[in-house]
């Protein structure tokens, strides 16, 4: 498979588990941790029914709750995340090449060595995110919030 070629979707059982996690009420997890470290989630689609049109940084009901998730070295090439809360997520070494992340909240995320080659980050919040050694070749950061 070429790097720019879309992968097959994740297995149905994997998608079912992720949909259950996405549907859970935010803030009621206690100490639960989402750990997708090293997972192959190429082509994963997570889409909230809510889109933040106010450009407000506050937590918004309707965003899919994945705050503090551990995605270290996960393969998320060609993923599509819309309206996902990934504040404070651990995303070191994640491959997000060709991913689309419109209106995703990555505020204060640890994103060192992340590959964002040709990724779409329109209206994405990257405030306080650590992008040290990130690969941004061809990334579309139109209206991304950096400060």
Which secondary-structure class do the elements indicate? little secondary structure
Shape: globular
Radius of gyration: 14 Å
**Main sheet strand line-up:** 1-3
Structure annotation, total helices? 1
How far is the first residue's CA from the last residue's CA? 37 Å
Strand content: 5-15%
Task: Specify the biggest β-sheet.
Answer: 2 strands, parallel
- Tally of extended strands? 4
Instruction: Estimate percent helicity.
Output: under 10%
Low-confidence runs of at least 5 consecutive residues: none
| SSE series | HEEEE
Sum up the structure in keywords.
147 residues, 8% helix, two-stranded parallel ribbon, little secondary structure, 1 helix, two-stranded parallel sheet
Describe this structure in words.
The protein is low in regular secondary structure. Helix content is 8%, strand content 7%. The chain has one helix at residues 12-23, and strands spanning 45-47, 64-65, 80-82, 84-85. It has a two-stranded parallel ribbon. It has a two-stranded parallel sheet with strand order 2-4. The protein is globular, with a radius of gyration of 14 Å. The mean pLDDT is 87.
Task: List the topology elements.
Layout: H1 12-23, E1 45-47, E2 64-65, E3 80-82, E4 84-85
Parallel strand pairs: 1-3, 2-4
Q: What's the short version?
A:
By secondary structure, the protein is low in regular secondary structure. 8% of the residues lie in helices and 7% in strands. The model has no long low-confidence stretch (mean pLDDT 87).
């Amino acid at each position: 498979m070429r790097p720019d070629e879309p992968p097959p979707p994740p297995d149905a059982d994997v998608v079912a588990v992720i949909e259950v996690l996405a549907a859970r009420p935010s803030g009621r997890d206690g100490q639960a941790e989402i750990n997708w470290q090293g997972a192959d989630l190429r082509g994963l689609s997570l889409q909230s029914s809510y889109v933040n049109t106010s450009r407000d940084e506050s937590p918004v009901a309707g965003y899919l709750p994945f705050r503090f998730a551990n995605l270290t070295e996960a393969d998320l090439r060609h993923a599509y995340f819309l309206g996902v809360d990934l504040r404070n997520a651990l995303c070191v070494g994640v491959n997000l090449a060709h991913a689309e992340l419109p209106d995703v909240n990555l505020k204060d995320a640890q994103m060192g060595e992340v590959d964002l080659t040709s990724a779409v980050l329109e209206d994405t919040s990257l405030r306080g995110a650590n992008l040290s050694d990130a690969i941004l070749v061809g990334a579309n950061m139109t209206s991304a919030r950096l400060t």
